[in-house]
User: What shape does this take?
Amino acid sequence: MSIGQLAQRAGVAIDTVRYYERSALLPPAGRLPSGYRRYGDTELKRLRFIRRAKALGFQLEDIRELLSLGDSGDVASVRHAAQHRLEDVQARIAELQRVCAGLETLVAACPGHGRADACPILNALAGEDAA
Assistant: This one.
Protein backbone atom coordinates (compact mmCIF):
# COMPACT_ATOMS: atom_id res chain seq x y z
CA MET A 1 0.00 0.00 0.00
CA SER A 2 1.08 3.59 -0.49
CA ILE A 3 2.00 5.92 2.35
CA GLY A 4 -1.38 7.63 2.03
CA GLN A 5 -3.23 4.32 2.24
CA LEU A 6 -1.13 3.26 5.22
CA ALA A 7 -1.75 6.53 7.03
CA GLN A 8 -5.48 6.37 6.39
CA ARG A 9 -5.82 2.75 7.52
CA ALA A 10 -3.77 3.46 10.68
CA GLY A 11 -5.63 6.69 11.48
CA VAL A 12 -2.61 8.99 11.36
CA ALA A 13 -1.30 11.72 9.09
CA ILE A 14 1.20 11.03 6.31
CA ASP A 15 3.71 13.29 8.06
CA THR A 16 3.37 11.10 11.15
CA VAL A 17 4.38 8.04 9.14
CA ARG A 18 7.42 9.90 7.81
CA TYR A 19 8.31 11.11 11.31
CA TYR A 20 8.13 7.58 12.73
CA GLU A 21 10.38 6.38 9.92
CA ARG A 22 12.93 9.11 10.67
CA SER A 23 12.68 8.24 14.37
CA ALA A 24 13.33 4.55 13.56
CA LEU A 25 10.02 3.48 15.07
CA LEU A 26 8.99 2.22 11.64
CA PRO A 27 11.55 0.47 9.46
CA PRO A 28 12.38 2.25 6.20
CA ALA A 29 9.80 1.41 3.55
CA GLY A 30 10.62 -0.51 0.44
CA ARG A 31 10.54 1.60 -2.68
CA LEU A 32 9.21 1.04 -6.14
CA PRO A 33 11.44 1.90 -9.12
CA SER A 34 9.49 5.18 -9.27
CA GLY A 35 10.70 6.01 -5.75
CA TYR A 36 7.32 5.69 -4.10
CA ARG A 37 7.26 3.99 -0.72
CA ARG A 38 5.41 0.68 -0.38
CA TYR A 39 4.08 -0.70 2.90
CA GLY A 40 2.52 -3.96 4.03
CA ASP A 41 0.49 -5.33 6.90
CA THR A 42 3.57 -5.51 9.14
CA GLU A 43 4.04 -1.74 8.98
CA LEU A 44 0.31 -1.18 9.45
CA LYS A 45 0.30 -3.33 12.58
CA ARG A 46 3.36 -1.53 13.97
CA LEU A 47 1.88 1.89 13.23
CA ARG A 48 -1.37 0.98 14.97
CA PHE A 49 0.66 -0.27 17.95
CA ILE A 50 2.47 3.08 18.14
CA ARG A 51 -0.78 5.05 17.88
CA ARG A 52 -2.45 3.00 20.64
CA ALA A 53 0.59 3.24 22.90
CA LYS A 54 0.62 7.02 22.45
CA ALA A 55 -3.09 7.11 23.31
CA LEU A 56 -2.21 5.39 26.60
CA GLY A 57 0.34 8.11 27.31
CA PHE A 58 3.56 6.32 26.43
CA GLN A 59 6.32 8.60 25.15
CA LEU A 60 8.11 7.73 21.90
CA GLU A 61 11.18 6.45 23.74
CA ASP A 62 8.94 4.20 25.85
CA ILE A 63 7.25 2.95 22.69
CA ARG A 64 10.61 2.20 21.12
CA GLU A 65 11.48 0.15 24.20
CA LEU A 66 8.12 -1.67 24.13
CA LEU A 67 8.60 -2.54 20.46
CA SER A 68 12.06 -3.86 21.22
CA LEU A 69 10.81 -5.87 24.19
CA GLY A 70 7.97 -7.25 22.10
CA ASP A 71 10.41 -8.33 19.42
CA SER A 72 12.56 -10.07 22.04
CA GLY A 73 9.61 -11.75 23.74
CA ASP A 74 10.51 -10.30 27.17
CA VAL A 75 6.96 -10.19 28.53
CA ALA A 76 8.08 -9.52 32.11
CA SER A 77 9.79 -6.31 31.00
CA VAL A 78 6.74 -5.29 28.97
CA ARG A 79 4.59 -5.76 32.06
CA HIS A 80 7.06 -3.77 34.16
CA ALA A 81 6.99 -0.88 31.66
CA ALA A 82 3.18 -0.89 31.63
CA GLN A 83 3.10 -1.02 35.43
CA HIS A 84 5.43 1.98 35.61
CA ARG A 85 3.18 3.89 33.18
CA LEU A 86 0.10 2.96 35.24
CA GLU A 87 1.72 4.28 38.42
CA ASP A 88 2.57 7.54 36.63
CA VAL A 89 -1.03 7.93 35.45
CA GLN A 90 -2.38 7.17 38.93
CA ALA A 91 -0.08 9.81 40.43
CA ARG A 92 -1.25 12.37 37.89
CA ILE A 93 -4.89 11.52 38.59
CA ALA A 94 -4.30 11.96 42.32
CA GLU A 95 -2.70 15.35 41.69
CA LEU A 96 -5.60 16.41 39.46
CA GLN A 97 -8.06 15.32 42.17
CA ARG A 98 -6.20 17.52 44.68
CA VAL A 99 -6.34 20.44 42.21
CA CYS A 100 -10.06 19.81 41.65
CA ALA A 101 -10.80 19.78 45.37
CA GLY A 102 -8.85 23.00 45.87
CA LEU A 103 -10.69 24.72 43.04
CA GLU A 104 -14.05 23.51 44.33
CA THR A 105 -13.24 25.01 47.74
CA LEU A 106 -12.17 28.32 46.21
CA VAL A 107 -15.20 28.57 43.93
CA ALA A 108 -17.55 27.77 46.83
CA ALA A 109 -15.89 30.46 48.97
CA CYS A 110 -16.22 33.16 46.34
CA PRO A 111 -19.53 35.05 46.25
CA GLY A 112 -18.86 36.20 42.68
CA HIS A 113 -19.32 39.88 43.52
CA GLY A 114 -17.68 42.56 45.60
CA ARG A 115 -14.22 44.06 45.62
CA ALA A 116 -11.28 42.25 44.04
CA ASP A 117 -9.15 42.70 47.18
CA ALA A 118 -11.73 40.67 49.13
CA CYS A 119 -11.94 37.88 46.56
CA PRO A 120 -11.00 34.56 48.20
CA ILE A 121 -9.77 33.12 44.90
CA LEU A 122 -7.42 36.03 44.18
CA ASN A 123 -6.24 36.10 47.79
CA ALA A 124 -5.55 32.37 47.81
CA LEU A 125 -3.58 32.62 44.58
CA ALA A 126 -1.64 35.55 46.00
CA GLY A 127 -0.81 33.44 49.05
CA GLU A 128 -3.09 35.36 51.42
CA ASP A 129 -5.71 33.76 53.65
CA ALA A 130 -9.19 33.56 52.17
CA ALA A 131 -11.61 35.92 53.90
